Structure formats: C-alpha cells, structure tokens
Amino acid sequence: MKPFVLLATRAEDLPADEEYELFLRYSGLEPEQLRRVRLESGPMPALDLDELSGIFVGGGPFNASDPLEKKSAVQRRVEAEFADLLDEVVARDFPFLGACYGIGTLGAHQGARIDSTHREPISVVPVTLSEAGACDPLLAGMPRTFGAFVGHKEAISQLPASATLLASSPGCPVQMFRVGTHVYATQFHPELDVDGITTRIHAYADHGYFGAGELELTLAAVRAAPVAHTGGILRRFVERYAR
Q1: How far out from the chain centre does Cα 140 lie?
Q2: What phi, psi does 96 have (nearest 5°)?
Q3: Tens-digit pLDDT profile for residues 57-101
Q4: CATH number, domain 4-241
Q5: Distance between CA atoms of 146 and 239, rounded to whole angstroms?
Q6: Domain boundaries in the chain?
C-alpha cells in the first residue's frame, strides 16, 4: 500500500505526538503507513502525489484570518506551501482530509470567507449532516446528528460555489465541506477522544481558547456529551483511498 501523509503544525511535542497516535488509532493505519511531517519545524518536503494514497492535515495554532502582520514567518511559509500543494490536490481531485486548521487551509485556497463570527469554545457540539452529507460515502453510517469535539477562534462564514456543504452545528454553519469528489475538510476534530482533547486543553491553556479561571469548566465541557462516531470518518477515508 502507498502511504498516507499527516501534515502537522503543532510545535508542542506532547499534543503533536498524541495527535499522530490518534490519527493512527482511528484510521487503522500502522506507523509505516502514515508518514508525519511537522511543518512548524521545517519546510514541506516535495510530495509526489503519485506515490501517496492520501493526505491528512491536523489542527494547530494558526488562524488563516489573522492579518498578515500578525502572522509569524513560519505561518506565512506554511500557508504558501499549502497554497502550492492545494493547487495540485484540487486540480487532480486527490484524496485530502483537513481537520480544524485543515478547513482553514482549504477554505482559504477556495476563496471562502473566514472570520471570527462563528468561533466555538472548546466543547462537544451536535453536528448535523446536510442532504449532501447524508449521501456522502465518507459519512456512511453516521447518525444524522452526532457529537463532535470543537474549539476554534475562526470559522468559515460563507462557502464558495466550488464547495459542497456536508455538515453544520448550531453555532457554526460550516462544520464539513467537500470540493470535487475527494477533497474534504472538517471544522470539528474527527481524530480526538476525551484524553486527547484533555491534553490539548492543558497544552493551550494560555492561547486564548478560554478565559483565565475557566480550565475546570472547559474540562467539564468536553465530558458533557458522548463522542462516539467521528473517528469512523478517518477509517472510511483510509478504506476508500488506500491503494
């Protein structure tokens, strides 16, 4: 089987390593089948799409909607690399699944409006499939409404005509979309479980996702409702595209 690749941007080793382990667990891949590239530590290597089965993008601290002057040199480099990669991915309709930061990269590439209007605190939210989502093979077998982990400072407020809306939540109209047939992005985190999001809550406690003194409330929020179905999205992505 040709490997998949996980493009990651987390600088903190503990959540970065745990993210990789979670992608392995829920995708069903072995380490030799999922190559990890930590983009925060160096330039994106040349990726020969003919030698890959598909691409995952994990979450991270970058916000696509931040003014250019607020973006670090690393973020500007990563965004330029993603723009070049997505030119080829979208043109070839190559299997791609971006989670959280991945929705910002694909959304920005396609000309979506991204701002802070629909930011969501770290929590579990009910995500509901659209008519197109209910028919999408990556979401086969999912309940029409399911719980998912979220936590983001920006979101897509308007999709371009090139995108198909697949899922929404009460506070965020674009939780998942598709471009073409094989290029996907989610605002929620399909790779997370309670332990994983707990690690991130502690790791990013001073990054503005919640206020001072709200740590315990945030930890309680991610235990308020079950999350049982989202990991299957990763497994179905692999089942569909492994070659």
Answers
A1: 19
A2: -145, 135
A3: 999 889 999 999 999 999 999 999 999 999 999 999 999 999 999
A4: 3.40.50.880
A5: 21
A6: 4-241
